[in-house]
Amino acid sequence: MGKKPTSSGLFTELRIFFISIKLTVFILITLAATSIIGTLIPQNKSDESYIHEYGNFLYRIFKAINIFDMYHSWWFQFLIILLAVNIIVCSIDRLAAIWKIIFIKIPVFKISRFHKLKDKEAFSSKRSPDALIDIYEKLIARRFAYHTVEKTDNGFCIFAEKGRWTRLGVYIVHSSIVLLLAGSLIGSFLGFEGYVNIPEGSAKNVIFLRNTMVPHELDFSIQCDDFNVSFYETGAPKEFRSSLTIIENGTPVRKKDIIVNDPLRYNGVNIFQSNYGADTPKEIVLAIFSNSSSMEYKKTVRIGEKIDLPEGMGELVINNFMNNYKFKGHAIGQSFFGSITSDKGETQNIVLPVQYPQFDKMRRGNAYISVADFKHSYYTGLQVTKDPGVPVVYTGFILMILGCFVTFFMSHQSICVEVMKKGKTSSVIVSGIANKNKPGMRIKVKKILQQLEKTG
Amino acid sequence: MDSSSLLSIVTFVYGFAALLYIISWIFNKELPGKTATWVTIAGVAGNTAGIIMRWFESYQVGYGHAPFSNMYESLIFFAWTIAVVYLVLEFQYKNRVLGAFVVTLVFFTIAYASLSPNISSRIQPLIPALKSNWLIAHVITCFLGYAGFAIAFGMSILYLIKKDGGPGESRMLSLVPEQEALDEMIHQMVMFGFFFLSIGIITGAVWANSAWGRYWGWDPKETWSLVTWFIYAMLLHARLVRGWHGKRIAIISIIGFMAVIFTYFGVNYLPGLHSYG
């Protein structure tokens, strides 16, 4: 009261603020609640679509607090940093307190602690304590890492323990989270993520960064030698495959076919198969079936050039191509578009879906036309990323799994076997303490008692 | 017989088991209880056979993939994991009251898969993004996690209706394990769930990194699984550091399971990479 906060006072206050579990729970609740926002409001869309969706007023408010890219906003990053500081300060504080307990050379046992326990198991043996001591010691030594035998006034006591180090489990988990955050920081400062479309047969060395679309130059170029896509019978895509060559300073240095889930990695840069598309082909072969003469004609047509149809049926031009045309709501795949102008000057639009050769019959013209053949010309859509933080993150993953296992399923267990002389027989009492999973320890104490009972 | 008709039969087997568990609880009779356990075991056997058959069938139609690729298959597997984890628990704790809740949940899960018109049981080809060995590890660990949380949820509800016990307690409630034991079991199940959810998220991240070059993309499903993870992390900290017990833990565990349900079903109504289930 009335004291000016000295620097050490401020430090203490900060420490107390950061070690409070209330802060942890507050951060976890806030992170959980705010993370949800980004799943309800689509992230990183165009400004126009947001204005259309939320109106100008809400749009400005959301924009001001970075709702449209909230996982990268200053306040979300601030929460994550706060969590990291909270975890680090808490862990150091608690670790300092229990360090001496964990790294003790000779564990200390107090018989009074075991006497206070509610759950004790007991039986009486027909043999004297002197006859039991060696057998029991061997049995306990097999089950526990450390044990010690103490003589008492009328018998002996075996103390044993194991898993003292498992008290560190929770700090392994906490350090794994710090590693994950550190790894993601490294990635966001030293890495990049972008896309590039490369037509078959050409090479590129500039990609476009995700969200911002800023061009980014690579130290090498990626050449797409070939691209293939295969389909299931249902029409769903089965596999995309790009044959890539990495070219550095004019010489090819690496060749690999990539598919989804099997990227090419070069110099820390990963190249993933992301999508594909078809460029408009230069020319196609059409089959023209005349209704009046029942003749079928094959004609090669260059896109955008007029040709004369046979039997004086007029002029045809194909001027457009779409990868996935929707006809009355149905996706009918790759289609060509054009028009027919008759001798009388009437113009009719035509649609030629590659997969449906009979489609043009619906026009009810004097001939129907289908696509007989064309050479696909694809471009491959690649995702190009670099993330030097990945090894740190993966180390974090491994530590998290190990740490959770130790924390949840292992415990520091101590046991006390007390044997007292009662006339010619002995009374044996077994009791145990565990820092976690107490029902499990109770079962274990019972099992040990049964084993002791069997030997006498 | 094909896998989906076998699994329809399994649905009724689980339904029968659930009914027996409820009867055994209401009338406090040993025989229906024991029968319920055996019927559940039969259900699990049929469920296992169904999953394996489906795996074979997918090779016969030429797609050849593990049966974890759409909503129908994941529900079938979810039912399987809950039933298996429950049987292990029943064997450990020798109490069948929980079965009335959990096996009913198993029944609803598989019935939803088999009977809902929105869910197709057809074997579909695998889209390229799902063709990875990580798929199996990811799905199995996630669903073990979900199963742990589902059982903790059932126990939490039991905890809340059990109240304090005491002499005025009805006979049905007296068969429910003591609150203290339930509290411990909830904790155990949450730890089990948390462990596997963590591995599930991690295997998903490693897979995403090998398929798309980013281990985390704030996709709605990823984000919701993280929200779930935060909620259960909070539960564990409240319990271990603040010593919260009983009612408060049971309530957080129920909220956590709501998040699990949303992660599983709700997210499919939001846009994202996990739209296949």
What does this structure look like?
The complex is a heterodimer of chains A (456) and B (277). Chain A has 456 residues and is α+β, with helices and mostly antiparallel strands. Chain A has four domains: 7-96; 104-163 and 411-455, TATA-Binding Protein (2-Layer Sandwich); 187-280 and 379-398, Tick-borne Encephalitis virus Glycoprotein, domain 1 (Sandwich); 283-375, no CATH class. Helices cover 35% and strands 37% of the residues of chain A. Chain A has nine helices and 22 strands. Chain A has helices spanning 7-19, 21-40, 47-64, 74-102, 111-115, 129-143, 169-190, 390-409, 438-455; strands at residues 121-125, 146-152, 155-162, 192-199, 203-209, 215-231, 237-248, 251-259, 264-266, 269-278, 283-290, 296-302, 306-308, 315-322, 326-327, 330-331, 335-341, 347-353, 367-374, 378-386, 413-422, 425-434. Chain A is elongated. The two termini of chain A are 67 Å apart. Chain B contains nine helices and no strands. Chain B is an all-alpha fold. The longest helix of chain B is centred in the C-terminal third of the chain and has 34 residues, at 179-212. Chain B is flat.
Can you give keywords for this protein?
heterodimer; A: 456 residues; alpha+beta; TATA-Binding Protein; Tick-borne Encephalitis virus Glycoprotein, domain 1; 5-stranded antiparallel beta sheet; 22 strands; 37% strand; elongated; B: 277 residues; mainly alpha; 2 domains
List the helices and strands and how they pair.
The complex is a heterodimer of chains A (456) and B (277).
Chain A: H1 7-19, H2 21-40, H3 47-64, H4 74-102, H5 111-115, E1 121-125, H6 129-143, E2 146-152, E3 155-162, H7 169-190, E4 192-199, E5 203-209, E6 215-231, E7 237-248, E8 251-259, E9 264-266, E10 269-278, E11 283-290, E12 296-302, E13 306-308, E14 315-322, E15 326-327, E16 330-331, E17 335-341, E18 347-353, E19 367-374, E20 378-386, H8 390-409, E21 413-422, E22 425-434, H9 438-455
Antiparallel strand pairs in A: 1-22, 2-3, 3-21, 4-5, 4-20, 5-6, 6-7, 7-8, 9-10, 10-20, 11-12, 11-19, 13-14, 14-17, 15-16, 17-18, 21-22
Helix pairs in contact in A: 2-4, 4-7, 6-9, 7-8
Chain B: H1 3-27, H2 30-60, H3 71-93, H4 97-115, H5 134-162, H6 171-174, H7 179-212, H8 220-240, H9 247-264
